[in-house]
Specification:
Elements lengths: L3 E7 L5 E2 L6 E2 L4 E3 L8 E2 L9 E3 L4 H10 L2 E9 L4 E9 L1 H13 L1 H33 L7 H9 L18 H15 L13 H20 L4
Parallel strand pairs: 1-7
Antiparallel strand pairs: 1-4, 2-3, 4-5, 6-8, 7-8
Length: about 230
């Protein structure tokens, strides 16, 4: 069975309108469209009005319920801090969820074993990645304090942190990404950046205050070893 898939946005815009009933879709309400910039409908006028919402968290259940449903509405919500839409679950038919749950119960033990093996492999791969990231830092900053490259790499590459070390470019050991990781470390560990907050100073001003200190430390750490 082929599944009709459509995006659903908890919109961050104020002036959207349903192309079917012509009613406004207000901030935070569900807007069904390819993107917020495309013509779309309100949730009531969409094919998903009689579906059931499935929260994220179970990859097998999500995948299988989508496969067994004739329609699937993928819900996205705007993350202000990361400035992007993030997936928050999906709308599928109730019978599809029931069927998917039965399938998941039938092979739960096998999937648990596979997940355990995969987790071990990911941990090993992550350890290797952090070690390689540390080497890349040391290569660009040969005069940084001993073992500091390891601390920078562990912090920048922490899983699910959204930090620079988890970006695609960082995984290619892009110089600009490494520079950002080192600069962030210096800002918090080598300057009085953190202590300036809660004193009526804007974040922009605080960054400006420590900019020259960061530049000097970067230059110092870049010097070749003698």
């Amino acid at each position: 069975m082929e599944t009709f898939v459509q995006n659903i946005y908890l919109t961050k815009r104020e002036k959207l309108r349903c192309s079917y009933c012509k009613k406004p879709v207000r901030f935070g309400e569900a807007y069904v469209a390819e993107t917020e910039n495309h013509r779309g409908t309100c949730f009531t006028c969409s094919p998903f009005v009689k579906t059931t919402f499935l929260e994220p968290g179970n990859a097998a259940l999500t995948r299988r319920s989508k496969k067994h449903s004739s329609v699937c509405g993928i819900l996205f919500q705007w993350n202000k801090r990361r400035r992007r839409f993030e997936r928050k679950g999906q709308y599928v038919e109730a019978k599809a969820i029931e069927l998917a749950q039965k399938e998941c119960e039938a092979d739960a033990q096998k999937r648990a074993l596979n997940n355990e093996k995969a987790a071990i492999k990911r941990a090993a791969d992550d350890k290797i990645y952090i070690a390689e990231f540390s080497k890349a830092i040391r290569k660009l900053y040969p005069s940084c304090p001993k073992n500091r490259e390891v601390a920078i790499a562990k912090h920048a590459c922490e899983k699910y942190s959204g930090r620079v070390g988890r970006s695609a470019n960082a995984k290619q050991f892009d110089k600009a990404m490494i520079d950002l990781a080192v600069e962030a470390h210096i800002r918090h560990k080598e300057t009085n950046y953190d202590s300036q907050f809660n004193k009526g100073i804007t974040k922009r001003k605080i960054r400006s205050n420590v900019k020259q200190d960061i530049i000097k430390t970067l230059q110092k750490w870049r010097r070749p070893l003698r």
